[in-house]
């Protein structure tokens, strides 16, 4: 058996996959990484460059794209080598840095999704008071919380070794090996990670989506039940609003579906593994982590590709038109559709 370290009785076992399997895995993961980087970088450039896109909501999306870009840049490449080779070649201290950064950025991305759903709730369900409630200061508070809470949680847990507190003996006897870098949680830390990084923000997203869908349907029934004479005028007046409601409901529905499909399996395994005496295979855990990473790959597609401004910004970036004079003040889309 090949080993990761020269001290054989303490070393992790290296991957025994054939070269063809490794090449396929590397190719697939590199494709995911490049797609994540390119997609999120386009969102970052678009919102940064075009002044029309300098809105509170878009700064929140810009911050999320930055998180997802950093995840693809700083975390995924090292996770790729670890998953394919089953070995960690970058030292024990960098393992802690990588694990902390991984947990922080993955959680921060989920936090941003939760805050964006709250922003969309006020935009759709309380549009008259939206600008008063969700101003640039509120957005910066959301961004600060989305970065700071995951950072404190992730780096505090890993560097203070709180993730296996109470089960240290079992961890060092049966789990820890030289040349490895796996994320390990005790029962308490596993439940805590599940609650902070997944359950609480996910529950907020689910409740907000249901509320938007419920209100949008209620408003549609209310308009349809009115007198025909008033209905024509109301449809003219509220046509744009109802269009935005449908777009927000559809987008949030897709966001919720993608989020649950990508992250739910990993966090459920993280929660259950300590209660199953750590019987879940490491290979399955690695596969579920990459399934979670795909959420950062899909985020720019779901949030940006659904909007007309993104498609026009993408064309201008690809054709180099953003380098032209006054391109930053170009009107990407009508104000009512922005």
From TrEMBL:
Belongs to the G-protein coupled receptor 1 family. Pfam families: 7tm_1. This is Trace amine-associated receptor 1. It comes from Otolemur garnettii (Small-eared galago). Gene3D superfamilies: Rhodopsin 7-helix transmembrane proteins. Signal peptide: none annotated. GO terms for biological process: adenylate cyclase-activating G protein-coupled receptor signaling pathway; adenylate cyclase-inhibiting G protein-coupled receptor signaling pathway; phospholipase C-activating G protein-coupled receptor signaling pathway. It is found in: Cell membrane; Endoplasmic reticulum membrane. One of its GO terms (cellular component) is endoplasmic reticulum membrane. Residues 39-303 form the G-protein coupled receptors family 1 profile domain. It comes from the Eukaryota. GO terms for molecular function: trace-amine receptor activity.
């Amino acid at each position: 058996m090949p080993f990761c370290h020269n001290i054989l009785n303490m070393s992790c076992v290296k991957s025994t996959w054939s070269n063809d399997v490794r090449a396929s895995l590397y190719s697939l993961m590199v494709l995911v990484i490049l797609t994540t980087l390119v997609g999120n970088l386009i969102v970052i450039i678009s919102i940064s460059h075009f002044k029309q896109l300098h809105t509170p909501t878009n700064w929140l999306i810009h911050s999320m794209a930055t998180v997802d870009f950093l995840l693809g840049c700083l975390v995924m490449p090292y996770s790729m080598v670890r998953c394919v080779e089953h070995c960690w070649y970058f030292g024990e201290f960098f393992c802690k840095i990588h694990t902390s950064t991984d947990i922080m950025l993955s959680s921060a991305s989920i936090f941003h999704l939760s805050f964006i759903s709250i922003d969309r709730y006020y935009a759709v369900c309380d549009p008259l008071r939206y600008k008063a409630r969700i101003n640039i200061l509120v957005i910066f508070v959301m961004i600060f919380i989305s970065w700071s809470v995951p950072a404190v949680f992730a780096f505090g847990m890993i560097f203070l070794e709180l993730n296996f507190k109470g089960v240290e003996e079992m961890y060092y006897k049966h789990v820890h090996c030289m040349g490895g870098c796996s994320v390990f949680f005790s029962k308490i830390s596993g439940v805590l990670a599940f609650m902070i990084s997944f359950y609480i923000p996910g529950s907020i997203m689910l409740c907000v989506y249901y509320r938007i869908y419920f209100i949008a349907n209620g408003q549609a029934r209310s308009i349809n039940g009115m007198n025909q004479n008033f209905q024509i005028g109301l449809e003219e007046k509220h046509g744009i609003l109802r269009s935005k409601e449908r777009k927000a409901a559809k987008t949030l529905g897709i966001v919720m579906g993608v989020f649950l499909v990508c992250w739910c399996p990993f966090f459920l395994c993280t929660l259950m593994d300590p209660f199953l005496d750590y019987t879940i295979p490491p290979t399955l855990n690695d596969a579920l982590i990459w399934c979670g990473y795909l959420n950062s790959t899909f985020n720019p597609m779901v949030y940006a590709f659904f909007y007309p401004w993104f498609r026009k910004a993408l064309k201008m970036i690809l054709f180099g038109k953003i380098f032209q004079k006054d391109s930053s003040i170009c009107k990407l889309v009508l104000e009512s559709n922005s």
